[in-house]
Amino acid sequence: MTLSSFDGVTAVVTGAAHGIGQALARQLASQGAGVVAVDVRRDDVEALVHELTDTGHRSLAVTCDVSCRSEVADLGRAVARWAPDGVQLLCNNAGVFTPRHALTATHEDWQWVLGVCLWGTIHGVEEFLPGMVASGRAAHVLNTASMNGYVPNRVSALYSTAKYGVVGLSDTLRLELAGTQVGVTVLAPSAVRTNIGNSEEVRPSRFARTREDPPDDPFADYGLSAALSPDTVAALALDGVRAGRDVVFTDPVVAPMLDDQLARLKGSWTTRGSNGSPSA
């Protein structure tokens, strides 16, 4: 099942204060959706909602740290009061990044990145998906992963781990939800002009690092195309939702990377001969 139109739906967008989330919120509002804009940055998300409401769009700002289950439960209650008919589009988009290798990351680094990028998505699913399914209405889940949820990156172990988890969750949900009115799309962007590199500015104190050392190099050269604007990526994502696509990639450069990865996996295949010894 797909949402052929966003007119009249209620959409929850996490990480809505900046970047892709902000672009999703604006575009959904312009297409007739009631938008619940969610972010840990109170002033910024409230400014976005003032912008939307001033131009005649129905919108609600909710300050929420999606890594915290109790705060997402509060979000659910706020949404239920604001939109008693429920949610038809859930955009689990909030994400953070810190430039740490697995060898240099602290436990708090892991907790924070997985808390927002993976557990934030899980919390959104826990809070809203049961009601979406029970309503019997056409609905959709859009989970923002990354090309790093499909192609590993030697300088983003924490981020890639989280995004691989988002992809696995999404692929499994799609199978579980077969026969229902709820679809699932993964957004897997490559380079995008966002401020995710400044995530440390909103790092909660409970995830403060227990030691100080120089950051690792956060960049890897994949030969990617030029970074896209958040508006372009959001438009691609919403087109994918309407079309019911499983995955939305944003850079054709990723295709041969996936081919190479699949070839390596197939090359690792072994069988056992009649004597029980492995053979290629």
Give a written overview of the molecule.
GO terms for molecular function: oxidoreductase activity. Pfam families: adh_short. It comes from Streptomyces shenzhenensis. The structure is a single chain. With 280 residues, this protein is of the alpha/beta class. The protein has one domain: Rossmann fold (3-Layer(aba) Sandwich). The chain contains seven helices and nine strands, in the order E-H-E-H-E-H-E-H-E-H-E-H-E-H-E-E. The strands form two sheets. The chain has a seven-stranded parallel β-sheet with strand order 3-2-1-4-5-6-7, with helices on both faces. A two-stranded antiparallel sheet has the order 8-9. Strand 8 and strand 9 form a beta hairpin.
- Spans of at least 5 consecutive residues whose pLDDT stays below 50 are none
Estimated radius of gyration: 19 Å
CATH class: Alpha Beta
Compute the average pLDDT: 93
What's the CATH superfamily, by name? Answer: NAD(P)-binding Rossmann-like Domain
Strand pairing plus helix content: what structural class? Answer: alpha/beta
Characterize the largest beta sheet: strand count, sense, and whether it forms a barrel.
7 strands, parallel
Binned strand content: 5-15%
- Between the first and last Cα atoms, what is the distance in angstroms? 42 Å
What order do the strands of the largest sheet run in, or round the barrel if closed?
Answer: 3-2-1-4-5-6-7
Name the CATH architecture.
Answer: 3-Layer(aba) Sandwich
Order of helices and strands: EHEHEHEHEHEHEHEE
Number of domains: 1
Mass-distribution shape: globular
Q: How many individual helices?
A: 7
Helix content: 40-55%
The quaternary state of the protein chains shown equals single chain
The CATH topology turns out to be Rossmann fold
Number of strand elements = 9
